[in-house]
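Suppose a colleague, Dr. K., hands you the sequence of a protein chain of 455 amino acids and asks what its three-dimensional shape might be. Before reaching for any lab equipment, you can write down a predicted structure in token form. Begin with the sequence itself:
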Amino acid sequence: MGIDLKDFYLNTPMAQPEFLRLKLDNFPDDVIEHYDLRGKADKKGYVLTRAEKGMYGLPQAGIIAQKLLEKRLEAHGYRQSKRTPGYWKYDRRPVSFSLVVDDFGVKYAGEEHTEHLLNVLKEHYVVDTDWEGKRYCGITLDWDYHGKKVHLSMPGYCNEALQRFGHLLGKETDQPHPHTVPTYGATIQYAKGQDTSPELSPSGKLFIQQVTGVFLYYARAADPTMLVPLSAIVSPQSKPTQQTMDITRQFLDYVATHPDAILTFRASDMVLKIHSDASYLTEPKARSRAGGHFFMSNEGENSPNNGAVINVAQIIKHIMSSAAEAEISALFINSRQAIPERTLLEEMGHTQPATQVQTDNTTALGFVSKNLQPKRTKSTDMRYWWMRDRSDQKQFRYYWGSGKDIMADYWTKHFCAAHHPQFRPKILTNPEEIDALRASHGKPPHQFRANSRVC
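The predicted structure, expressed as tokens, is then:
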């Protein structure tokens, strides 16, 4: 189920008052008349106000409201994890929840236990409940209990964003980012050339920052196919150029062509599996890219794929001197990301065996599994020794898999337009399946609106 607290930031007592200097013109006329603010304003038209409780616009409103909520919950036996902030459990009841600002995503066995949580919250807050768990943090959840699936989507989010940015579909495209045409038979791989197009104005820079900010949450929540182009757009956004703007416009065409993505999770043994991959010298300034696909599956090898709990699409910060070094770096990045994932799963009661990490690079696997003894590889020493230690501790088991079976490959480079329609069905769900499920429930999904809150 879902729980939402109304006016969460308001009226939280502050340890000491704050004083705000506000322009008289910002007040409504009825407020000015009621409090006689014209008589209290200074010569420059400002009014000095005293704030003793939390209010919108106060920088620390969120943290003081959060700390007060923690104090009230802990008094009734609810404990926040010390290792996973935002995850809560009760001492003696089968109820746990994740908390994002004022949104609760609650997992429970027995409604009487959730009623206990609700009664605690209702002592201090106005509470809105969603017993069907249809929406959380702006994400629409379509539960298929018969098929043992849950579908995540954000209907209307892309259309609202495109209207905000004034972007009409220029042309339909399956390619979110331009790709580099491969030179077959080449024996040397060169780094990408420098972008020499003119630098954008401040308004153009702000536009690109807004686009990446709006769609990054959507990409994390529902459509991971957007992560690689967004990562490439974000990288030069401190000094964006006309080429950056052209890439951004193409990305918006892709969004308009493929709105309302649907990500599906299927029931499993809740065992974390990872596919790791890297691409060498595929980004500007001789950078390489790491990709990762994290999903829940069953124990044993050749486990079925599932919806991604997280996808890594990251430009490697340091310069890699070889493809093998890039693969080792990608293994390190994905393994490090897996530590908090394993910790949370253990806290949720899902005991984890050694997490299987698949790579298609035999040299990188040889370094990690101690089958190769590297020489003159100081830049990679810390990475592969860290992974060796974790493997010895039975936290990870690294193994080789064929490149065509590595799901993470999609998040390592920019592919041609023909590749994307072939890969999308492997990670996203056909909308017709969800339309049939929603029709059987007789209720339309929540539509995102411009005034909707993410959380």
